[in-house]
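Entry 14. Ran structure prediction on the chain below.
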Amino acid sequence: MTKIIVTETAEKENNLLYVQTSLSELLKRTESVASVKSRDNYSRLSVDTEDYYSGIVNAEICDKLSEIIAVNYKYRYFKKNIAIKGLSETEKEILYASLIAADFEEDKKYVFDRLKGYTDITLEGIYNFRLQPLKKKWKEIVDCMPACFVNSQMVDFIGFLLENKTKRVYVDGGRVYDSHYRRLNRCALLDGEDVRIIREVILSSAGEAEIFGSIPPEDEKYFKLLYKDKIFFSSGYFC
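Output, structure tokens:
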């Protein structure tokens, strides 16, 4: 039996629950047992898995932890350090999601290469001591951001970040799915529920979106602004 332990600060326990929820099917199939417990100022995810499955379970856990650094930690960094005037809170959240998505795959791979194989991981420690080049890269992005943005500039800027994206995702019943119809839920690593659908689509690094059924007006507004002719609505959605 192999035990995999991931430790996170108590205020970020949600990150560990994200791993547990995202991998629930895999854990079930491999008869692995996972639990999240808190003590003092820390939370701990413990996974017990048979040695036979330890390689794949460990790899999938590290994959999700890499996602957490590349989304949640990057989000917190940008939210703390980017001070832009001229945008509403909703627009700021969309901007953060766009900046995260721009280098998501690259950031995630960088983190994964430094996590894989470890079975006792302290996420905050890894972030603070082994990912300094990544933090330096994020600081360079922050330093390049203007002090003030108006809405049209934000639309142009995000359009530039999206222009080379070709992947299509699907929005159905307010949920976002990839091309294999696997649900995407990276927004669980961000704050708030506002414009959750458009932020999820942006976080997926999609260049196109196909929408079935109705979506909240605010999401629809930003879909039209940002994706323009790269959104496809199900028949009869508009009169």
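The longest strand covers residues 2-9. Will compare against last week's run tomorrow.
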